[in-house]
């Protein structure tokens, strides 16, 4: 990873986030450098929906070149459900699959509009990707599959539910 200029960081460290944002801005400013590949969901999910994008990728400016990627499970399923299968079982399934096929769509470049904040821009890009891939848009963080849900998030959802009832 060091030879290909990866930028590694610990998401929970605020100092790391600021450093990454600075490195990305410097990279974008240098026209001689290749574009940066970012996976804004921060995780892989089950190929049916697009989860919440991390806003940091959309705060740095520059042009976003969205790409929709969707695996075709007819010949082999690339999704690993780590709660059901061990890494060895997953590896065996992938290695014995007929093929791992995925559709890739390169979408038109997108730029943040003047009145947009990073979250709205991220949601607009996410909606375009989901529509092209035929997936649903979900407002949840994909990292929830590995972490406990914050109490504040639960309370917010409970308040919304109470308002409906």
From TrEMBL:
GO terms for molecular function: glycerol-3-phosphate O-acyltransferase activity. Keywords: Acyltransferase, Endoplasmic reticulum, Lipid biosynthesis, Lipid metabolism, Membrane, Phospholipid biosynthesis, Phospholipid metabolism, Transferase, Transmembrane, Transmembrane helix. GO terms for biological process: phospholipid biosynthetic process; triglyceride biosynthetic process. It is found in: Endoplasmic reticulum membrane. It is a multi-pass membrane protein. CDD domains: LPLAT_LPCAT1-like (cd07991). It holds the Pfam family Acyltransferase. Pathway: Glycerolipid metabolism; triacylglycerol biosynthesis; Lipid metabolism; Phospholipid metabolism; CDP-diacylglycerol biosynthesis; CDP-diacylglycerol from sn-glycerol 3-phosphate: step 1/3. Coiled coil: none annotated. GO terms for cellular component: endoplasmic reticulum membrane. It comes from the Eukaryota. Residues 1-70 form the Phospholipid/glycerol acyltransferase domain. PANTHER family: GLYCEROL-3-PHOSPHATE ACYLTRANSFERASE 3, PHOSPHOLIPID ACYLTRANSFERASE. Belongs to the 1-acyl-sn-glycerol-3-phosphate acyltransferase family. This is GPAT3 acyltransferase. It comes from Atrichornis clamosus. The gene is Gpat3_0.
């Amino acid at each position: 990873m060091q030879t290909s200029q990866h930028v590694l960081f610990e998401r929970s460290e605020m100092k790391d986030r600021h450093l990454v944002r600075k490195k990305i801005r410097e990279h974008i400013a240098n026209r001689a450098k290749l574009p940066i590949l970012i996976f804004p969901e921060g995780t892989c999910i089950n190929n049916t929906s697009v989860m919440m994008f991390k806003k940091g990728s959309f705060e740095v400016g520059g042009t976003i070149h969205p790409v929709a990627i969707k695996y075709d499970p007819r010949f082999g399923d690339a999704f690993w459900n780590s709660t059901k299968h061990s890494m060895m079982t997953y590896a065996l399934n992938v290695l014995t699959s007929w093929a791992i096929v995925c559709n890739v769509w390169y979408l038109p470049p997108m730029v943040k509009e003047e009145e947009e904040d990073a979250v709205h821009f991220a949601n607009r890009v996410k909606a375009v990707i989901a529509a092209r891939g035929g997936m649903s848009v979900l407002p949840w963080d994909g990292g929830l599959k590995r972490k406990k849900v914050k109490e504040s998030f639960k309370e917010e959802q409970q308040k919304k539910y109470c308002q409906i009832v």
